[in-house]
Amino acid sequence: RNSIWISSPDGLMEFTLNHKKFHVIDALSEIVNQRDFWQWAGIDIDPRGRVWMGTNPTGIIIYDPANNSVNLPFPNGSVEQKDVSDENVALYCDKDGMIWSGFWSRKGIYQLIPFSPAVRHYVADASQPNRLADSNIFNIINGDQGTIWMGSPIGINIFNPHAGSFSFLERKDLPGIEGGGGGFLVPINVDT
Predict the structure, then answer these.
(1) What gap in Å lies between CA 52 and CA 42, rounded to an integer?
(2) Rounded CA gap, 49 and 41, in Å?
(3) 28 closest CA partner among 10, 6, 47
(4) Residue 148 in 3-state DSSP?
(5) Residue 60 CB burial class (10 angstroms; 0-12, 13-18, ≥19)
(6) pLDDT digits over 123-166, tens only?
(7) 144 φ, ψ (degrees, to nearest 5)
C-alpha cells in the first residue's frame, strides 16, 4: 500500500507515501469515540495486509484496508478479548501468520493463531440491526461489489460478506413490480 500506519490518540492513521498525506481511518470512529479510549503502543501488519492495533478499552482490533472493515480477534465483550488484548504494549505479526502479544502488566506473552470458522450461521432476528430479514431462502446469486442476493417470500436479502451485514429490498422498494404482499421475490441476475 506504500503507507506508514500510526497508532495515535486520534485512532489509526495512514500516511500515504505517494501523496504525502495523513488519513484518519473513519471505520474506527466508534472505537475511538469511546469515553475512555486510548491507544497502546502495539501495532503491526500481518501477512494479509491487515493492521493489528492495541487500544483501550476495546483491546486489540484488526483493521483491513482492503475492505475498510474492523474486527476483533475474539468476540466483543468476551473473556478472551479482555484477557488476551487488554494492556497490550507489543504486537508482532510473523511471516507465518502468528500474532504475538506482550503486555506492560507482566502477563507474559500470548501467541494468537488466526483462523476462519468453517461455518457461520445467520438467522432472521428482528432485534438485530443489519440482520437477515427472512430465514426462508429460495435462491442465491452473486451481486454487485461482492454482495450476495437471496430471494425470499417477503423480499430480497442482500448480504455483504466483508462487513457481515445485510440490507433488504421489499416489494415497495422496487417500482414497477406489481402485486401486494403475495408472491416471492426471487432474483435471477444482477446487471452490474
Answers:
(1) 8
(2) 19
(3) 10
(4) strand
(5) buried
(6) 888 777 778 888 899 899 998 888 999 999 888 999 988 777 89
(7) -75, 145
129 cis-preceded (ω within 30 degrees of 0): no
d(CA 59, CA 9): 14
State the pTM of this model.
Answer: 0.63
pLDDT at residue 179, rounded to an integer:
61
Rg (CA), the chain: 21
Please give the Cα distance from 145 to 158 (Å, whole number). 11
Query: Which residues are bridge partners to 190 per DSSP?
Result: none
- The three cell numbers of residue 132 are 437477515
pLDDT tens string 69-78: 998 888 777 8
Q: Which of 90, 50, 87 is nearest to 72 (CA)?
A: 50
pLDDT band at 45 (very low <50, low <70, confident <90, very high): very high
* Helix, strand, coil percentages in the chain from 3-state DSSP, rounded to 5: 10, 40, 50
